[in-house]
Amino acid sequence: MPPSRARRSALPTLAAALVLAACAAPAGPTRGLDALAPRVLLLGEVHDNPDGHARRYAWLEARVDAGWRPTIAMEQFDRDRQVDLDRALAECADAACVIRRAEPEGQRWEWPLYAPVIELALARKLPLRAANLSRADASRVVREGYRAALDDATIASFGLDRPLARDLADGQRRAIDEGHCQQLPASIAEGMVRAQVARDVWMAKVVAAEAGRGDGVVLLAGNGHVRRDLGVPRWLEGTAGARAFSVGFVEEPAEGTFDERVAIVPHPRVDPCAK
């Protein structure tokens, strides 16, 4: 469901609080990044963790203030809303307007955590790219396979017409099982793996298309998508030819391989797997 009216009305206040927190946040990724100046940068997140968002935003804002002008690709916007997103960026004065006009249907993102990035894009006229498949597209992939949401050229170029590598398939299955408290029926798990792979492949395609433009591209997405062992970097290096630098903003201990890990303060939440 879309965010409630109360949550939307609180967006400016919460976003301002997040920006203030970012000013006091410890440094984000540093090791190797300034020297490498990668054209493809993947910055992860724990979706509901304010500390991670604040650290990531502080780092991103500082680099933009220093003159960096990347395209920002976001998991939070679906590909079928790109036209709406472009129009909103051209016509809106603030993040609340952009979100209202371009947010995906049926999603419940914590938009106040993303508002500062959208405000930064508006203020500095940075392009925003909708990097995700819609929930409807992902559901079709679960039921019908990759061709329900991806064209033949994409399937061929990313090798989805062949079986997944064993380590990739097994790793995605483990991650999905853990995310569903080990309760996911086996009959559904294979389709869920396909959906996750389809999302990663689409993000890789979006990122690769932007890598050669301007100052490159930064993808903002969940840590699972930016994992070097399972996520977008694997698809970029395997097929799209764009070397990516991935940074996980993680609540330790956390699984996954990244070029750099930034430990963030764990966010209190109810354990969904608790009996």
What would you say this structure looks like, in words?
Helix content is 51%, strand content 11%. It has a single domain, classed as Rossmann fold. It contains 13 helices and 6 strands. It is an alpha/beta fold. Helix 4 runs parallel beside helix 7, helix 6 crosses helix 7 and helix 11 packs across helix 13. A 6-stranded parallel beta sheet has the order 3-2-4-1-5-6, with helices on both faces. The chain starts with a helix and ends in a 12-residue tail after the last strand. The N terminus is likely disordered.
| The CATH topology | Rossmann fold
Tell me about the biggest sheet?
6 strands, parallel
* Spatial strand arrangement across the major sheet: 3-2-4-1-5-6
How many discrete domains?
A: 1
Shape: globular
List low-confidence stretches. Answer: 1-9
Radius of gyration: 18 Å
Distance between the termini: 26 Å
**Count the helices. How many?**
13
Would you report the number of β strands? 6
Gist of the model:
The chain has 13 helices and 6 strands.
Please name the defining characteristics of this protein.
alpha/beta; single chain; disordered N terminus; six-stranded parallel sheet; Rossmann fold; 275 residues
SSE topology:
Elements: H1 5-9, H2 11-24, H3 33-36, E1 40-43, H4 50-65, E2 71-78, H5 82-91, H6 95-102, H7 111-124, E3 128-132, H8 135-144, H9 152-157, H10 166-179, H11 186-210, E4 217-220, H12 223-226, H13 232-240, E5 245-250, E6 260-263
Parallel strand pairs: 1-4, 1-5, 2-3, 2-4, 5-6
Helix pairs in contact: 2-4, 2-7, 4-7, 5-6, 6-7, 8-11, 10-11, 11-13
